[in-house]
């Protein structure tokens, strides 16, 4: 089998080499000593570097391989290896694009890390890009083994022990051990076995290079420098330098072996502070803005400096060290730091007795005096004396994933070329029987078919039973309702045993989902299933249990491991403190202790119902029924409450609407314009609902200006046009609509009507208009989808959550239910001051959404509904997040809230599908211009560049007449959004009222089209509208006959 290439090591480098051999037409066998491939590559959290990539060019990042080479050379300093660096940096763009194109990997998010001149670190939306990339290559190689066994083989649990050589000393194969037996493989050899950071034995390479390591320039001046073997490692237990030792045994030379990298930051598990293996705290944490402080609470370095510089400064300061992150950063990297002790910076400062100023000011950047840290690098013999063995370099500074791919591909292509030129004759002379007898049985690490039996045949276990198996010698975990005995898998887990043992005897669904996809379970873990969680005999995905906080069963255990009871309300009542908080919602018991600090409206609202049933308050808040699932909080559910969904609930809130059958309410047929719906709604709605819907920001000038601006637009009709037939049909983002009007997003529909947004969905279907499903809808996406017709056009309005995974789940859920586009709200980094709303207390309980006195624990109870529900919105949203969003969805993306031509041009340059000219209904920045005025400015700027057809432009705000719609369409809008009138109509008349809104608008548009001389929407031209007075904001606003009764004046306080 000399025409085969033997790859030793199943990490990213090994798989990159193996795939390159296959793509070159060669044959490859991959050996890995672990039961599961992946290696350290799966732990990489920052991304893969690339300069001059297509993705960078799309983002207008002027990076080049030469700049990357210069950066890397500067970082390497005296240790620079020019040929290696040139190969690495100039091969970076092809490597990234190879991953994108050959393996369909989304690497469209680009960030800038330390020592980089430009953003060049590529990643997808997944939290562990190394895992995402490596697993994809693993899956594809396993597919090749399955479908092309004559060209690809994988042998796991195969420990390579020595390289085979011929009489001339040339490497001709590998000898390895598997299950106590020795096997051989013959062919060209690629060693991709990684480093030796986890080898603490007496003859380890770490001990062999200790003296030389201590003499390196970056360490020799540090007093009391610890021994190299005293440092913990973030490497897996498999990184013991096997490949390097085998190569040295046959005469291979090495260079830079003493350059063992000492990474500055590893995460300390408070429960095991002295553990020898730790999780890496990657540059991504410091790159996001996190800072380092020493035991005295002082910053001591530039956190974005090179690794050896930061490490050197740490070794000169007093431990322990803390990595300080703000709330947004800690939520973004919760998956990485959740098991580490975190405190708010203000409390941290008080703990260390330092001023906040100390940790908010940058430290001196003196890293220019420090030399770089280079990982241990073994270089292939440059003499090419051993043509048939290729030793890959270990990862170099901050380029670990890139090293693996670039050098893996180089080794793979070289080995494939060698076998083509030198191995064919050998194959012809070697009978197949003689080679196959010396090989171990191949495996692809996929599970056997033992799981093919129905889940219903598996035993059911309570969480109390699972909790008994909580040690390394007896380790069970629950993932998505299935019970796994992973005791035998612990040492084979690529992430180490500790990360699994931390959840021994517990439900590990949440941490699993943070890192892995569900198909990983089916593919690799079915052999470890021992049962299902009680109450889930069918094996459905669940995350509820019936255990108490101490792991004891809260139900009646019949003795056979099957739950027969529920959690009593008396038991729930015991858990009524901030450090132990349970509540009941819709018959389910939730342990919300860890969620209190993350609740958008503050913990006080939840604490009012600690140990009680909070269903009434939950429903009154307008939460969708599936909000728990949407936020990924299913794991907080402990089980069913006594009494189920009928459990008693303390009623402490009231958002009842006024009697909708008010005396004198006119019949719907007598409502002739949209203002009249407002007058009726004012009498029908609760005070809380009315002020939430009707309020604008500050003095409400923009609120009034939105409609007043239409009064300053005058029409220029054409005559003698045949308008016997008028067609209002148009398109939105390629979808045919009956008329170019849509229901724009409006939150909390159930404040107006018990059916909430369902009224809007049904009416939109009946009248043939598009509806935007709001992020803050009272109804669930599933409920709205169920109310829609099969051919109905629906879009999603998105507020981007500071926890991006929540937004991603919402998008995916909406995509499954048929939405056709996403409208991203971009004008709400902070909520406007809507004083009318703020004067009415949020009736559930005052939220702690503004800064309060920490020491006194005071809560401002006068912030209103809007501020209580909007704290999750991410204020850091920026233009760079467009690529993140494109990595999440392929649907058209529209920016909602564009307020000037400059931003419209930026949106067009970045290839957005559309924008909405809008000031958020006058609810954000007061004195922001009306959407219609912005539309005129935007279309002029687009036409000046010939971009008027580059994207679709929409407008909303203040639309109350059909002629308002026609004015906007004539000025260039593709469609016009209507918001408040639909809510007011729904409050007074339900679905029929909303249908009546669009009946009126349609009638007025048809009449206006005829009188303007337009047969079709395309006949409406800018020349038909006079805009000379539009920008004259000082002109007195005309009064509407009914609006003065709708908008109530600000009341003077009787007592100050």
UniProtKB/TrEMBL annotation:
The keyword Kinase does not apply. Its cofactor is FMN. One of its GO terms (cellular component) is mitochondrial intermembrane space. Its main location: mitochondrion. It is found in: Mitochondrion intermembrane space. It is an enzyme of class 1 (oxidoreductase). GO terms for molecular function: heme binding; L-lactate dehydrogenase (cytochrome) activity; metal ion binding. Keywords: Flavoprotein, FMN, Heme, Iron, Metal-binding, Mitochondrion, Oxidoreductase. Its EC number is 1.1.2.3. InterPro entries: Aldolase_TIM, Cyt_B5-like_heme/steroid-bd, Cyt_B5-like_heme/steroid_sf, Cyt_B5_heme-BS, FAD-dep_OxRdtase_2_FAD-bd, FAD/NAD-bd_sf, FMN-dep_DH, FMN_HAD. Residues 429-457, 541-562 are annotated as: Disordered. Signal peptide: none annotated. It catalyses: (S)-lactate + 2 Fe(III)-[cytochrome c] = 2 Fe(II)-[cytochrome c] + pyruvate + 2 H(+). It comes from the Eukaryota. Transmembrane segments: none annotated. In the C-terminal section; belongs to the FMN-dependent alpha-hydroxy acid dehydrogenase family. In the N-terminal section; belongs to the cytochrome b5 family. Homotetramer. This is L-lactate dehydrogenase (cytochrome).
């Amino acid at each position: 089998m000399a025409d085969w290439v033997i790859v030793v090591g199943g990490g990213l480098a090994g798989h990159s080499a193996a795939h390159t051999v296959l793509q070159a037409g060669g044959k490859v066998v991959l050996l890995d000593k672990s039961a599961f491939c992946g290696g350290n590559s799966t732990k990489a959290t920052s991304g893969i570097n690339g300069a001059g990539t297509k993705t960078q060019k799309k983002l207008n990042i002027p990076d080049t391989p030469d700049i990357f080479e210069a950066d890397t050379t500067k970082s390497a300093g005296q240790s620079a290896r020019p040929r290696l660096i040139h190969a690495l940096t100039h091969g970076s763009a092809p490597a990234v694009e190879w991953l994108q194109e050959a393996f369909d990997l989304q690497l469209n998010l680009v960030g800038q890390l330390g020592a980089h001149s430009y953003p060049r670190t590529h990643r997808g939306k997944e939290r562990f890009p190394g895992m995402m990339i490596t697993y994809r290559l693993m899956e594809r190689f396993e597919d090749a083994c399955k479908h092309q066994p004559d060209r690809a083989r994988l042998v796991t649990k195969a420990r390579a022990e020595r390289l085979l050589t011929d009489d001339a000393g040339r490497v001709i194969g590998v000898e390895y051990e598997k299950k106590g037996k020795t096997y051989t493989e013959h062919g060209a050899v690629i060693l991709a076995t990684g480093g030796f950071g986890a080898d603490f034995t007496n003859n380890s390479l770490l001990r062999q290079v200790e003296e030389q390591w201590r003499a390196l320039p970056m360490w020799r001046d540090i007093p009391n420098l610890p021994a190299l073997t005293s440092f913990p490692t973030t490497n897996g237990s498999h990184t013991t330098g096997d490949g390097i030792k085998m190569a040295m045994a046959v005469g291979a030379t090495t260079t830079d072996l003493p350059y063992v990298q000492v990474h500055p930051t590893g995460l300390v598990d408070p429960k095991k502070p002295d553990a020898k293996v730790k999780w890496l705290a990657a540059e991504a944490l410091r790159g996001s803005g996190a800072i380092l402080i020493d035991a005295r609470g002082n910053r001591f370095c530039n956190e974005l400096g090179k690794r050896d510089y930061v490490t050197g400064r740490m070794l000169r300061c007093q431990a322990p060290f803390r990595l300080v992150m703000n709330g947004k950063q800690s939520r973004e990297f919760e998956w990485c730091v959740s098991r580490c002790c975190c405190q708010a910076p203000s409390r941290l400062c008080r703990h260390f007795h330092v001023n906040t100023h100390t940790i908010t000011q940058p430290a001196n950047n003196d890293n220019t005096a420090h030399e770089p840290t280079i990982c241990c690098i073994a270089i292939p013999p440059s003499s090419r004396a051993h043509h048939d063995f290729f030793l890959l370099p270990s990862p170099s500074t901050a380029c670990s994933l890139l090293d693996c791919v670039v050098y893996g591909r180089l080794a793979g292509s070289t080995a494939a070329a060698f076998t083509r030129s030198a191995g064919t004759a050998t194959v012809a002379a070697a009978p197949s029987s003689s080679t196959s007898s010396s090989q171990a049985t191949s495996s692809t690490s996929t599970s056997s078919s033992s799981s093919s039996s129905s889940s219903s045949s598996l035993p059911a276990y309570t969480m109390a039973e699972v909790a008994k198996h909580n040690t390394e010698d007896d380790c069970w975990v629950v993932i998505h309702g299935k019970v796994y005995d992973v005791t035998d898998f612990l040492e084979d887990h690529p992430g180490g045993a500790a990360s699994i043992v931390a959840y021994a005897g517990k439900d590990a669904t949440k941490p699993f989902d943070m890192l892995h996809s569900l198909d990983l379970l089916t593919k690799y873990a079915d052999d470890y299933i021992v049962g299902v969680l009680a109450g889930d005999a069918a094996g459905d995905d669940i995350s509820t249990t019936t255990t108490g906080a101490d792991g004891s069963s809260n139900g009646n255990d019949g003795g056979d491991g099957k739950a027969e009871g529920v959690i009593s309300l008396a038991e729930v009542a015991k858990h009524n403190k901030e450090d132990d908080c349970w509540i009941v919602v819709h018959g389910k018991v939730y342990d919300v202790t860890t969620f209190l600090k993350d609740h958008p409206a503050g913990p006080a609202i939840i604490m009012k119902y600690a140990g009680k049933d909070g269903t009434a308050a939950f429903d009154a808040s307008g939460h969708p029924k599936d909000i728990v699932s949407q936020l990924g909080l299913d794991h907080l559910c402990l089980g069913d409450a006594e009494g189920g969904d009928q459990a008693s609930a303390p009623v402490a809130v009231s958002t009842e609407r006024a009697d909708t059958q008010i005396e004198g309410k006119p019949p719907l047929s007598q409502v002739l314009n949209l203002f009249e719906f407002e007058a009726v709604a004012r009498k029908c709605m609760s005070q809380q609902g009315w002020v939430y819907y009707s309020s604008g920001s500050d003095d409400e000038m923009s609120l009034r200006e939105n409609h007043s601006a239409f009064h300053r637009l005058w029409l220029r009709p054409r005559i003698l046009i045949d308008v016997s037939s008028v067609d209002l049909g148009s398109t939105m983002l390629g979808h045919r609509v009956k008329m170019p009007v849509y229901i724009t997003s409006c939150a909390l529909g159930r404040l107006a009507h018990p059916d909430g947004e369902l009224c809007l969905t049904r009416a939109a279907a009946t009248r043939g208009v598009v509806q935007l499903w709001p992020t803050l809808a009272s109804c669930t996406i599933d409920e709205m989808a169920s109310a829609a017709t099969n051919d109905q056009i629906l879009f999603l309005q998105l507020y981007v959550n500071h926890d991006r995974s929540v937004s991603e789940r919402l998008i995916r859920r909406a995509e499954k239910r048929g939405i056709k586009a996403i409208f991203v709200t971009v004008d709400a980094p902070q909520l406007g001051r809507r004083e009318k709303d703020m004067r009415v207390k949020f009736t559930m309980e005052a939220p702690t959404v503004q800064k309060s006195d920490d020491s006194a624990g005071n809560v401002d109870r006068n912030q209103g509904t809007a501020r209580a529900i909007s704290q999750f919105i991410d204020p850091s949203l920026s233009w760079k997040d467009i690529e993140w969003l494109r990595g999440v969805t392929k649907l058209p993306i529209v920016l909602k809230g564009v307020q000037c031509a400059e931003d419209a041009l930026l949106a067009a340059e970045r290839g957005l599908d559309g924008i909405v000219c809008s000031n958020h209904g006058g609810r954000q920045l007061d004195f922001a211009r009306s959407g219609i005025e912005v539309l005129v400015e935007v279309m002029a700027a687009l036409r000046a560049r010939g971009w008027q057809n580059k994207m679709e432009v929409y407008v909303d705000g203040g639309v109350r007449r059909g002629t308002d719609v026609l004015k906007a369409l004539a000025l260039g809008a593709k469609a016009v959004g209507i918001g408040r009138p639909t809510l007011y109509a729904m409050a007074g008349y339900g679905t029929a009222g909303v249908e009546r809104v669009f009946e009126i608008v349609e009638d007025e548009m048809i009449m206006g089209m005829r009188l303007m001389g337009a047969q079709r929407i395309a006949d409406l031209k800018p020349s038909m509208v006079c805009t000379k007075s539009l920008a004259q904001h000082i002109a007195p606003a005309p009064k509407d006959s009914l609006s003065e009764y709708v908008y109530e004046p600000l009341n003077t306080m009787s007592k100050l």
